[in-house]
Predict the 3D structure of the following.
Amino acid sequence: MIAYKFLRPDGTSVFTRYTWPLPDDGPGPWVDAEVDPCRSGIHACRRADLPLWLGRSLYEIELEGEVREEATKVVAPRARLLRRIDAWDESTRDEYTRMCADRAHELARAADLAGWDAVVEPSVPEGPALLGFVAARIAEKISGADAYHAERRHQADWLADRLGL
Amino acid sequence: MAESHDHVSCSEVVELVTDYLERSLPPEEAALFEQHLNFCDGCVWYVDQIQTTVETVGRIEPEEVPPEVRSQLLAAFRDWKRS
């Protein structure tokens, strides 16, 4: 199964700080781990999960073995990084952040949510993960849980399109 | 209008931090917790502080605590239980 994984700029995992063997000319070496979701195992994103886990560097990852499909991620016992997705760079991160900020303004102003509108611009320096959440939360405030998920799907589609996934 | 339960707030992070650090949160809640940490630097800082405190305090052996401090601590905890 092909999935995606965000890492820190130094190639370590965001939460476990595991140092991943990075791909060079070809795929990186296989990594094995016991599967226990959110505790151990190799965690990765499907396309729809990308907005929830945005980080600095994005890699395509090949998962092997029995892959567990969780609500917002997949967990596998074996994986290797195939390539870095270079399109997820500073420029695209800024563009995505701006897209989410504009969307958040649009939603908040249409519903007269001045308090929410006011938090958008101060949140922009915090980056794409926060702005995606803010836009989805405003949608949820206006129209409920389905709107939250619809906004997340829209964000995932934007990312998949821009990154060619 | 129902809001989703697919995210946690900063105050919920404060409530759940001990269970998260002890790895006793159910996987779904741990995922929501980590999604929040992914965009909230304030909560990352808070969780790091708690983790550091737990690690530091966990290294102290009972015999390292002076008797008078031990008595004061026990008294304080007794009062806390009553209040």
Q: What stands out?
A: Residues 90-163 of chain A form one domain. The mean pLDDT of chain A is 94. Strands of chain A lie at 2-7, 31-32, 42-44, 57-64, 68-69, 74-76, 78-84. The helical segments of chain A are 90-110, 114-123, 128-143, 145-163.
